[in-house]
Amino acid sequence: MKNKLPLLLRIVVAIILIQTLRFKFTAHPDSVYIFTKVGLEPYGRIITGVTELIAGVLLFIPKTIWMGATLTLGIIGGAIMMHLTKLGIEVNNDGGILFITAVITFVLSAIILWMKRREVNFF
């Protein structure tokens, strides 16, 4: 189980990241609403989607797992800050599910990065 846990965490984070792409790339009304409210529509929505796609892919390339986790922390950290400052916990009567998902993704990415900390090489 110990060997499967890191892969399971990466799969969960990647699924969360990648499943939101259809909303961002198809200009779903909820996605447009969110990015309009934070003043980043349409470019922020598209750039965020592309960045999430890159992070999701990096999580499955052995030498870049830590990069994917780090990128995810940055993206999702920004999403959490937007929820706490401009959007609120609940968006469009979603019961806070977007916020909860962001927090879960952030925590799992932090765990992944912690597990890969010895592989982080800036130089």
From TrEMBL:
It is found in: Membrane. It is a multi-pass membrane protein. One of its GO terms (cellular component) is membrane. The keyword Transmembrane applies. InterPro entries: DoxX (IPR032808). Keywords: Membrane, Transmembrane, Transmembrane helix. It comes from the Bacteria. The chain crosses the membrane at residues 7-23, 43-61, 66-84, 96-115. Its main location: membrane. The keyword Transmembrane helix applies. Pfam families: DoxX. Signal peptide: none annotated. This is DoxX family protein. It comes from Aquimarina mytili.
